[in-house]
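Preliminary data (for renewal application), zinc ion complex.
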Amino acid sequence: MPDRFLTDAAMDYTAIYGRGAGCCGDEDFALYRFLCCGGVRLVCYEDDTVYLDPRDLSRQGSSSVSSQTESECPLCGVPVSVGQPYTAWATWGEAAASPWAWTIRPDAWPRPLR
Ligand SMILES: [Zn+2]
Ligand SMILES: [Zn+2]
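Predicted structure:
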């Protein structure tokens, strides 16, 4: 089975808020993989917040990239610039192998990974 990308509908907002997530008040959660270093993190793509620690959602960074200031990957520190995509939705397999699997709705997992 090809490893497909997660979608919005898979995210378990109840579980994520239940563990204390919150950034901009209009959260749109996703699991992103950072292409530079392969790290998987929970993000809010409304305001580019990156949740750094699956056990402590108060630890947050930013993945925003601005043309005005130098930006870097919040995980590995490599420089990133506007127009250079450096994040992608994680796949089901990457999510399952990460410590962020709890952010996925239990009933959303494809059968082989349940
Ligand atoms: Zn946010
Ligand atoms: Zn990185």
